Amino acid sequence: MWQVQKFTGTGGEIMAWNGTVTLGALYTGGGLKTACGLTRICFQRHIIPANIPSFITKHQNLSDGIQKSLADAGWYNYATFCREADGLVITYAETKAETYTEAVESLKKSNFEKLYSAEFGLDATTIESELKHYFYLGSNQEGQESTTATNKTWEPQASTAPATTSNGLNRVCFHMKFEAQDLAQYLKDHETVWPEMQKALVETGWHNYSLFYREDGFAVGYFETDAGFKEACERMDHKEVNKIWQDAMSKYTPSKSTPLDAAGPLTPVCYIGNDK
After folding, report:
1. Does position 269 have pLDDT exceeding 80, yes or no?
2. Rounded average pLDDT over 79-106
């Protein structure tokens, strides 16, 4: 049975979706780790748009050496997506490191940087910039809070093309934009997302759901679902609480449209992990 996501701190007053105020015990802000203690990270890079087709093809057939170096560095559930129009590339991963900076340092100590640079002609650890984690919502289904298995004996993947999780869920990533001057309040609103909104997301198949942001208001979301981005959004459209939440969040978007109306899906590029 679904349960509201609990807050591990001291709690405080929380405004519920119907206007009532209660002493809160829920927390949906950034920094929450996976069930097996991994840190969720996200970073971006830009590729020349004309090179995106080649970039995608190469990443769907990454060498055993690159795959192993990621595992050696403690990187799991590594999924990359892109926006083909302008070459934006977004990567989500779960790592044994405590921070993004520490995770990058672990790559430098492995053979990943050398192998990746040789294969792509790119510096694998200096061209990225971090997007900060500001929201997380888990799942009510056992085994779907995190599909990552960190204790499994490493084996190379025959293909690193986009793949479903071990539970058969699709990995989805999308982008959004918010007003930078209102970012502090927008982030605060996501620390205590209404229990009814949490429940609606779980019921409509939004699992292992995280949001990340840049200081200029650009944001991306990553989640795992039995549907695609469009269908997952359509399911939420039927939830009354979502309509109220989206209207409440619209004041933070440049167009004053709802966040999901202004959102756009990213194209899956590759997946490297060990949950199969």
Report:
1. yes
2. 95
